[in-house]
Amino acid sequence: MKANHLFIWTTLIGLLLYNLLFWRQTWGINIPLFSLFILGSHHYYYPEECRKSGYRWSALSTLLLSIAVLISNSFFAKLCFSFSIMTTAGFLMPHHYRFPIYAVFNFFKKTLHLPISALGSFKGLEKYFPSGRAAGKLLRVSLVPVLIVGFFFLLYSSANPTFNALVNDLVEQVSDLLYKLVGFDRLLFSAFGLLLILLLSWKQKLPFRLRPKWRHEDNLDREFLKFKSTFRVKIPESIMQLKDEFKTAMICLAMLNILLFVVNGIDIGTVWFDGTAETAPVMRMRVHYGTYVLIFSIVLAMAVLLYYFRGNLNFLETNKSLKLLAYGWILQNCVLSVTLLIINSRYIYFHGLAYKRLGVIFFLALVAFGLFTVFVKIRNTKTIFYLLRKNAWAFMLLAVTVSFVNWDYQISRYNLSIADRAGVDWYFLIDEVSAKNLPLLRQAIDEGKVLAGKNEAFQQGIRSRVDYKTSRFLTRMEEKGIWSWNLADHQVYRNLEKSDSIVR
């Protein structure tokens, strides 16, 4: 690392940049600019850590997500960007791992140990400050003139009303200026910015022991099994223990396959080939309850498979039948996922899109990849670390891809397009979806088709709510600064400016 005082100057520059970009601003173009500053400081001070593959992929994700915030400005993009930049900062710490979960843990450890690390870093900076004797002499030399001048200042101001009024006016103007420049809220804002910059750009030496490198390998071998397992699960060593565990695993997986086969058979007969529309509450219950059951089922399935294939059963010569049962159960969990996908798709077709319904689709994509990695882990004798690493990066890839889409606009466009079949949940589109759907709502109201058949009071109520939402959006846009600019809001604002029916 470069000299401490140089890093302090960089931190002060970052704090000024943070105040310039984010004071009374919302997320927009300031996010990519601030990200470039943080990543640039990483490469300047820690070039060796920045050459590692984990950091590179995480930094690339952070840059892409900052651009996604600039383009879509969705809550999901902001959430994923926050997670990604914390992960990137975590990769600066000493490690032998290559996936985001440990990096995030390191970031939180870094947060807890920041005060101790900050105090320790000031060692060696004493030469930039006066010594105790020099400071005492400076204080004695300056204190006497200040006291004398202060006494006469008070004397003259009390004796001369004009001078006193001038002093009071000057003090009031200076205090107002200082409050505007550095008020209490600005101080809190700057303190948070300083903390954020230190956490994101400073590599600390944490007081904890690193795990040995062998715990973070992809391939499982007998040398690996000489050490304790990651989850401290006892691994059978004798032949008799191994045979007993093999029999237990065979019975357990066989019974689980039979049970899930019956469940999937019922679902295929009642869900796959039955396209009738159900009421929204019934479908909502099936999708949400089915999602919770699927989550529990998949986690339990992975836990059971990982338990039995954690050690020497991977190297047993007669384990082919056990592996076939494991593959069968993975396949049946895929069938269970397809069943939920069909139910969710029908829910969307008959009742429109919503955030949770989109979330189910993204979750099923991760489930499919997770089951595939479990299959690869068993077939190619991989470690749990391999499983976690692959799935963590798959989540990052999905997060980056999904964040570029303006989902508020897409949800509104789809729901309005199926109004004849499913109707329109106006309260959802107006109150829960962001202002990015305003052009679509106003166009639908102006055309009048989606409100046809509704009574006049309902139509007037919808128009009033859309006008109020529009007015709030326009007011917020006019109060924004240049650093809050983002493409999604800009497109909505330009579209509304062209409209002749805007009520401010």
Characterization of the model:
This protein is mainly α. It folds into 3 domains: 1-218, no CATH class; 239-382, no CATH class; 407-497, no CATH class. It has 21 helices and no strands. The chain has helices spanning 4-22, 30-45, 47-50, 53-71, 75-90, 100-112, 114-121, 132-159, 161-181, 184-201, 239-272, 280-308, 320-351, 355-379, 384-403, 407-417, 419-422, 426-432, 438-447, 456-479, 487-497. It starts with a helix and ends in a 7-residue tail after the last helix.
List the helices and strands and how they pair.
Blueprint lengths: L3 H19 L7 H16 L1 H4 L2 H19 L3 H16 L9 H13 L1 H8 L10 H28 L1 H21 L2 H18 L37 H34 L7 H29 L11 H32 L3 H25 L4 H20 L3 H11 L1 H4 L3 H7 L5 H10 L8 H24 L7 H11 L7
Helix pairs in contact: 1-2, 1-10, 2-4, 4-5, 4-15, 5-6, 5-15, 8-9, 11-13, 12-13, 12-14, 13-14, 14-15, 18-20, 19-20
In total, the number of strands is 0
Distance between the termini: 55 Å
Q: Provide mean pLDDT, rounded.
A: 80
> Could you estimate the helical fraction of the residues in percent?
over 70%
Series of H and E elements: HHHHHHHHHHHHHHHHHHHHH
State Rg.
31 Å
Label the structural class: mainly alpha
Keywords:
mainly alpha; single chain; flat; 504 residues
Summarize the structure.
By secondary structure, this protein is an all-alpha fold. The chain is 73% helix and 0% strand.
